[in-house]
Specification:
This protein is of the alpha/beta class. It has helices spanning about 45-55, 65-70, 85-90, 105-120, 140-155, 165-175, 195-205, 220-230, 240, 245-265; strands spanning about 25, 30, 35, 60, 95-100, 125-130, 160-165, 180-185, 210-215, 235. The strands form three sheets. The protein has a five-stranded parallel β-sheet. Strands 6-7-8 form a three-stranded parallel β-sheet.
Length: about 280
């Protein structure tokens, strides 16, 4: 797999038992399989502390909410957003920034937003594509996503793409050239957990690029389940930012992703209908 996570590769195990196989995206290795967002926190200090506690190395940024984008779009920036200083929290020596197209409802808007992100970030080409089809559910517009993905790949972008849990769509996005497929597990911000595990498993079993659950995680057990299904990573924002203690939840998510990954690599015991005693009775 040239641009794929090593979900099916035998891991190296440290003495502490941690699987050290890396998440490989677009030719780069990341030790953390947890990706986090930057929205919904009460202030920049909480944002910083939560991101640090998560251990994430890839951090998303809604590029349409930055003053740069608002200026280019002819919008007036009200000065109340945390966005002006977000980049100060995310030094390139520590984090890989993942600008996203949150808020885009057409392929044209999504492509334009990515191009502006590339200009803002001095040629940065790794982006998260999302084209929404409905303001209430925030489900992806699959047809528009396919159009935008194809255009962005042609333009030289490395596209990580938010999509439905349809295995056929996931395969098509991979064929187009997306470097990661990111199916939702439940609606964005819903916290409902993994509602579609069989579809997710089907995508994982057939993908040759990383599969990263994007949307629906509500707590640590949800993140572990996603990883136990064989996903290469989990992206989340609301589950951390809207927790009673976001920094503590970020730490919990960090450990949940590690635990789920190790459980997947270890292989769970078979499910049985009846008991199987750990100390079998002596022969009689």
């Amino acid at each position: 797999m040239s641009i794929a996570a090593t979900a099916k590769t035998a891991p190296t195990i440290t003495p502490a038992g941690t699987a050290t196989t890396a998440l490989r995206v677009a030719g780069r290795d990341f030790s953390s399989r947890l990706l986090v967002g930057t929205g919904k926190y009460k202030d920049l200090d909480e944002t910083r502390r939560a991101i640090e506690a998560s251990g994430a190395q890839i951090v998303t940024l809604a590029i349409r909410r930055t003053p740069f984008f608002q200026r280019e779009a002819g919008q007036k920036f009200d000065g109340k957003s945390a966005a002006p200083n977000l980049l100060d929290l995310l030094p390139s020596s520590r984090y890989t920034l993942l600008p996203n197209t949150a808020g885009c409802y057409t392929a044209e808007d999504a492509v334009r937003t990515c191009r502006l992100a590339r200009e803002l970030l001095d040629g940065h080409t790794l982006v998260k594509l999302e084209v929404l089809g409905d303001a209430k559910t925030l489900f992806p517009d699959v047809s528009a996503t396919l159009v935008a993905a194809e255009q962005l790949v042609k333009d030289g972008f490395q596209v990580m793409v938010y999509t439905s849990d349809d295995p056929i769509v996931a395969r098509r996005l991979e064929q187009i050239g997306c470097v990661a497929v990111m199916p939702l597990a439940a609606p964005i911000g819903s916290g409902l957990g993994i509602q579609n595990r069989y579809n997710i498993m089907e995508i994982v079993e057939n993908a040759k690029v990383p599969v990263i659950v994007d949307a629906g995680v509500g707590t640590a057990s949800d993140a572990s389940i996603a990883m136990e299904l064989g996903c290469d990573g989990v992206l989340m924002n609301t589950a951390i930012a809207e927790a009673r203690d976001p920094v503590l939840m970020a730490s919990a998510m960090r450990h949940a992703v590690i635990a789920g990954r190790e459980a997947f690599l270890a292989g769970r015991m078979p499910r049985r209908r009846y008991a199987s005693p750990s100390s079998p009775p002596a022969d009689r």
